[in-house]
Amino acid sequence: NRTQFNRYLSGEAFPRPDILARICNFFQVDARILLEPLEDLRRTLPDRFLLEMRDKLLIGSSRPVDQAVMPDAVYRFWRRSFMIPGKIVTNLALIRTTEDVTLFKGFEENIFAQQENPLIRRFPRLPYFGLVRQHPDGISIYCQDRQGQTNVNFFESGLEANMRFYHGFSLLVRRRIDGMSRMSAAVLERLPEDPALWRAIVRQGTVQDMAMAPPIVQRALVRLHDGL
């Protein structure tokens, strides 16, 4: 009855388990709303797959990325194109640390749409997101876009003793397609705090000729041959 229900709401009484089950079933709520703060209950429950990945693959606690090794900054990402032989892909990326977790965010043009509509000059850039993990000998970055396409990257610091450049490889996790490579040499270039430079890079196309890259980047990109 209403009187007893008001006692439940005011905290003067607590429903028996069978009554609590009826109330929760009627309102389609979790019984923990009487025991825990609502903001805690609204958080998404941990994904079982991610928990297993953490326990089985990423064994051990993830240590914060050393800012002396890879500082939070805007970077330029360079790699050979997976789809277009002889071309490179370049774009901006942001690396930032929040509460000991280092996040990665980048953008790429929709190359598939560009192939379908070759007369259109620019296409919306597709965001992709990732996590940065430090290892004893380098940095790995795990990325995924909103369509679920996944990239795994690994970088070492100090390309040709230049600490602004990080060299490594990028691996595209997907089935094999004729004419497409799934692995490429890659370079991260840490950019200065210069928004004008960032805007100039954004105005450039994502897909470029190899000659457009600085010589230090060109040398790194040809060290690992495509073809996987």
Structural features, described:
The chain is of the alpha+beta class and 228 residues long. It has seven helices and nine strands, in the order H-H-H-H-E-E-E-H-E-E-E-E-E-H-E-H. It has helices at 2-10, 17-27, 38-42, 48-56, 111-116, 195-203, 215-221; strands at 73-80, 87-98, 101-109, 125-135, 138-145, 150-159, 162-173, 183-190, 207-209. The chain has an eight-stranded antiparallel β-barrel. It is elongated. The termini are far apart. The relative contact order is 0.13.
Strand order of the largest sheet: 1-2-3-4-5-6-7-8
Count of alpha and pi helical runs: 7
List the uncertain runs: none
Average pLDDT value?
82
Question: Notable features of this structure?
Answer:
alpha+beta, 25% helix, single chain, 36% strand, 228 residues
